[in-house]
Task: structure prediction
Amino acid sequence: MSDLTTTIAALPYALPACPNARIALFALRRMGAHGPHDARASHALFTAFGQDFRRPLVLMRALMADLAGTAEGTIAIAPCCCSRMTAAERSLLTILSRIETAPDSARYLLGDLLGVRRVDAVMASVAVLAMAFADDGRPICV
Result:
């Protein structure tokens, strides 16, 4: 198998065109790899949201903790420098973009991602994070 084929198999999706989704993805990747108090993730959210950065930062940290505590398996994330996304990252961004308009679809995707049936607590974390982005004029779209 060539290197390109291997890369596309591991990272099947292109990065989202939506800049808000890219901010969320960057913070997700940094916190997933380096912990919830990663300075670069904090700085990215500070740069994007200005003085109102604390709300999305705290909610992203809470979502990451909920995902880690609820998932039955591992959730594949790529390094920040990757120009493509894993299927799990794509699912999470899709869930964030659908939580308000298609909550049933978001619930099914989240259940599949986490490997559990009861996802209400994580759904709440997803909803408030998506709302924090939208309230600041940065809705996440995929």
Observations:
- The beta strands are 13-14, 84-85.
